[in-house]
Design a protein that fits this description.
three-stranded parallel beta sheet; two-stranded parallel ribbon; 5 strands; 46% helix; 8% strand
Length: 190
């Protein structure tokens, strides 16, 4: 679930092709990585590629030769069930990683363009993926595939280090979040 890029939208609206951008090339390369595809097929694991809503209009630029890879469109797939049903999340910077981590599922960050992202998309905020993230961070496709294959082999069990980070970041894990938010709203000065 990669997040969107303002730069891609600006290029597309100006009539420039985005098909040869690093973003499109990198994700397509991952979707066609034979080592990853073979490991997933042997284990009976499905790979679902669901980019950010703003990227859905460019879905035709993504493809995979993998038998068990789905390029998912928002018309046929809803992000909420996908998050609930998926065993592992690969993203770059998407905030869905918070939802996934809250559900105590492993995340992996594929961040091959941090300089461009933090200058063209968002300014770097408080959340540092390297020190606060809920999974491994890599800019290498080979390293990413190695991490993913390890997760496939160990049944998508959470890494203890990242499990502890999640527990520290989300100390309250009950069914009272709505009540707490409501009570805080009531405390606000009108």
């Amino acid at each position: 679930m990669p997040t969107w890029r303002k730069s891609l939208a600006r290029m597309a609206y100006s009539g420039k092709s985005i098909a040869d951008t690093e973003f499109i090339r990198r994700w397509n390369s991952l979707l066609n990585n034979r080592t990853l595809l073979d490991a997933a097929e042997q284990a009976g694991v499905d790979i679902l590629f669901y980019p950010h809503y703003e990227l859905q209009k460019f879905l035709g630029l993504f493809s995979s030769a993998g038998k068990n890879v789905t390029i998912a469109d928002a018309l046929h797939y809803d992000v909420q069930p996908l998050l609930k049903e998926s065993a592992l999340l690969v993203t770059d910077y998407s905030s869905v990683h918070f939802d996934f981590a809250y559900m105590k599922k492993p995340c992996v960050y594929y961040q091959f363009d941090p300089d461009a992202f933090f200058t063209q998309q968002y300014r770097k905020g408080y959340f540092d993926f390297e020190t606060m993230g809920f999974g491994e961070v890599t800019d290498s496709e080979d390293a990413l595939c190695g991490i993913l294959i390890d997760y496939i082999r160990n049944g998508f069990a959470e890494n203890e280090k990242f499990k502890q980070r999640c527990a520290a970041f989300f100390p309250l894990h009950d069914k009272n979040n709505c009540r707490r938010i409501y009570e805080e709203i009531l405390r606000l000065d009108p």
